[in-house]
Write a structure and sequence with these properties.
Layout: E1 11-12, E2 18-20, E3 23-24, H1 25-42, H2 46-62, E4 73-74, E5 80-82, H3 87-104, H4 107-123, E6 142-143, H5 145-156, H6 163-181, E7 182-183, E8 188-189, E9 192-193, H7 203-206, E10 207-208, H8 210-227, H9 230-247, E11 259-260, E12 274-275, H10 276-293, H11 296-312, E13 324-325
Antiparallel strand pairs: 1-2, 3-4, 4-5, 6-9, 7-8, 10-11, 12-13
Length: 329
């Protein structure tokens, strides 16, 4: 916690030393969400709620522009550094203030969460707005990232949304992902495709991010379980297992960060790194898939990914986790 300027320090060395004081709204909001969620779901520990309020106060005072859009990055004292081009800052802020409102009953937090959510819905068809670098019309594409996070945000705010808005938004996200972004034969998710669902032969459309597709599937398993929809659960589990088969590094173990759908050299230089979040999201999806279906291949993969993850990512000297590993782990 930054007791001088508010918010949290998130750039820490292995021993906890702060090495950069910039504050990224994704990370600030996620910590507010985490402490609030712990308080709401695990234990009414006052220290958790105090930490959540601390971050929420900083974001409330500095995180938005005059139109209610959330900046991407702030200086230590809260002055904006990076314009609000990234709608995912808004998504994480909505989830954060939704949990704070649930924990505290605070009307202002409730209003921020609801207003931010409505703003996300308004911006979703052109999320970057005036900050979009792409030339309009040349190569229009839709992405996996937005419908998956929109479904997740909607479920997070379920307690404060009317049933029609929730159902309409979640159903649209589910339809877009399974109808347009999933390759029905390979059961892999493209990161971007043409608006009609056609994969394009370019770097951006050939891009497969295994962790993203797997993460999306546990979101939709959660939705399908709530809706008592075993067919969607089965479809999601199939996609997880096919993505793992495609994305697993058979030589060194672990899940690749980026891959090319056609096997060409990926444009991303860090394509072969092994990231902590990819493996954590995979473990969540696999254990959820096993719980919902009892499929033994889910459990076999879970043990395989679990062993790799716990052998490689924890730092034996400090107890923290490494975020990024090279291909060899």
């Amino acid at each position: 916690m930054d007791h001088t300027c508010g918010g949290y320090f998130t750039c820490l060395d292995r021993d906890g030393t702060v090495f950069d004081t910039d504050k990224f709204v994704w990370l600030q909001a996620r910590q507010v969400w985490m402490f609030s969620m712990l308080y709401n779901e695990l234990e009414k520990r006052k220290s958790w709620l105090k930490m959540a309020r601390h971050g929420a106060q900083f974001l409330r005072g500095h995180g938005m522009d005059e139109d209610g859009n959330w900046y991407f990055a702030l200086a230590r004292d809260g002055r904006p550094l990076v314009q609000p081009y990234n709608i995912f800052s808004d998504c994480f802020a909505a989830m954060a203030f939704g949990q704070v409102a649930l924990a505290t009953g605070d009307a202002d937090s409730y209003e921020i969460a609801e207003r931010t959510y409505r703003n996300i819905l308004r911006r979703k068809d052109n999320p970057k707005g005036k900050y979009n670098k792409a030339v309009p019309g040349t190569r229009p594409m839709i992405s996996l990232a937005l419908p998956m996070i929109l479904a997740n945000v909607s479920l997070e705010l379920e307690w404060m949304l009317d049933a029609d808005t929730l159902d309409r938004t979640v159903s649209a996200s589910l339809d877009e992902i399974f109808s347009l972004l999933l390759d029905p034969e390979r059961k892999l998710f493209y990161e971007q495709v043409a608006p009609d669902g056609t994969p394009l032969d370019c770097f951006d459309s050939r891009l497969i991010l295994p962790g993203h597709g797997i993460e999306a599937m546990w979101f939709f398993m959660d939705i399908a379980e709530r809706r008592k929809d075993p067919a969607t659960v089965a479809k999601a589990v199939d996609a997880v297992l096919h993505t793992l088969d495609f994305g697993w590094d058979r030589k060194y173990g672990g899940i690749f960060y980026y891959l090319d759908a056609h096997g060409h050299p990926p444009q991303k230089l860090e394509w072969d790194q092994k990231l902590w979040w990819v493996h954590i999201e995979t473990l969540v999806a696999l254990i959820m898939g096993y719980r919902l279906t009892g499929r033994e291949d889910c459990w076999a993969w879970y043990e395989k990914v679990h062993d790799y993850t716990w052998q490689r990512f924890p730092d034996p000297e400090t107890g923290e986790w490494f975020g990024y590993l090279n291909r060899r782990g």
